[in-house]
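Sample intake sheet
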Amino acid sequence: MKTLKSRFDLIINFFYSIKDKNLDWQSANQPQQLKLLHARMLAKKSLEAELAKKSTQLAHEIDLLKTRHSAELAMLKTRCKEDIKDYQDYLSALNQLKSTIQRSYAHLPGAITLTIHHHAKSLLNKMWEADDLEQKINYEAQLIKFMTTVHEEARLFHSGSPVEKLPENTLRLINREDSRSSVNRS
């Protein structure tokens, strides 16, 4: 039994010695542990401050982006309204063109007048829907040339041509455009 007691005492002494060594180590390293704890707290506060600063910067940048996008949206809406007004003005001009043709060429069948009007409207729509600026300018030039030809022929016819004739140059332009369109589709 004595051996058991001595072994038990040995184990208890061993645990106490480990505990004492641990206390000695903690006492010896306490200043270093305090420094590490202090450094960790400072780093945490520094990170929190940096995070708060970044959050403020991001919030400011988001506000700037919102403001800029709101301004861009307002400008885009204004441009779209102007584009719609311009398109309506073009349509009005095309309707005037149709009226001019009907007045100047009263002898023309309605289908020819509508064909001329439809062709001008088709050019307008192609111009309006073109994504490529060069293509848009090309369609615009075609539309201007077409409308100028129609008005010029109507003016000449109105100025005293006694013979009932067709707006030949206008119809030639339509045929030429239709020929180009069918070649481009092939």
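Comment: Residues 2-104 form the longest helix (103 residues). The radius of gyration is 45 Å.
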